[in-house]
Design goal:
alpha/beta, Rossmann fold, four-stranded antiparallel beta sheet, 2 domains, 35% helix
């Protein structure tokens, strides 16, 4: 469905952020894109969704293909109409709108008005917590409820591919598990492909089919999610586990001992 082919991304014609990044998302699959802050994960999503064009960034080499069509020359509105929705990090709700109004905003371009109400009910089925607050201003929701709302807004666009940026950011572990279980359900029931950007490698690889690890604007490792979870370097650097299973902080990891560049 999605093919990112050896792209380079530059901001304001000076700052190169991505260097030869390639990845694929197959139809109906969940793919995790992992890495530390500043690795280039969010820039990769913005390159796919067209949001780079709003920030003086552009793809300067390579290309991005979606459903057989090259899309990196298009703006965000055109790419969204093709079936790609990006759920930004930071729970960016319209604070003065209530929950239902927030959902309707992401259905404004749709012509099947009769289906919109049904889709609101679908969102509330996945997220019953925000159904209870459907008339409440979204600025008064908890952080977890706001995260549910922004994922629900993404669903309202009826995308073929959803780009999720750090859905676990700032949430308690129990809430992270709840949201990730819902993401798994959405993927299975709606047959929707998902590209999931995360620092929380344990949560992301727990539901993903395939994964990529980014370092300094490049893909450092890739492979099936189960194999990435078992990789010692991923466990130590991204999950905080030493070789004997003890907890370890990132500061204690002095060197990232990469034994293999690719996981077949």
């Amino acid at each position: 469905m999605l093919q990112v082919n050896n792209i380079e991304v530059t901001y304001v014609n000076i700052i190169q952020v991505l260097r030869g990044v390639s990845l694929e998302v197959a139809d109906g699959k969940i793919v995790a894109l992992l890495g530390a802050n500043g690795a280039g994960k969010t820039t990769t999503l913005k390159a796919i969704s067209g949001m780079l064009k709003t920030e003086e960034g552009k793809v300067t080499n390579g290309g991005i293909v979606f459903d057989g069509k090259r899309i990196d020359r298009y703006g965000p509105a055109d790419i969204a109409a093709m079936g790609i929705t990006q759920v930004m990090e930071g729970r960016r709700v319209f604070e003065h709108f209530n929950v239902e109004e927030n959902l309707l905003v992401f259905a404004h371009h749709r012509k099947d008005r009769g289906q919109v109400k049904s889709d609101i009910d679908m969102v509330f089925n996945y997220f019953p917590k925000i159904k209870e607050r459907r008339r409440q201003r979204s600025g008064y929701l908890s952080g977890g409820e706001q995260q549910m709302l922004v994922i629900g807004r993404g669903l309202m666009a009826r995308p073929k591919l959803m780009l999720l940026d750090e859905p676990s950011l700032g949430l308690a572990p129990l809430l992270v598990r709840e949201i990730y279980e819902i993401i798994r359900r959405i993927n299975a029931e709606q047959k929707m492909a998902i590209l999931l950007v995360e620092q929380n490698a344990r949560a992301a690889l727990g539901i993903a089919d395939y994964g990529y690890v980014m370092e300094n604007g490049r893909i450092a490792l890739e492979g099936p999610a189960e194999r990435l979870k078992d990789n010692q370097d991923v466990q130590e650097f991204y999950m905080g586990l030493s070789a004997v299973g003890s907890k370890k902080s990132y500061r204690e990891v002095k060197h990232y001992r990469r034994k293999k560049r690719w996981l077949a």
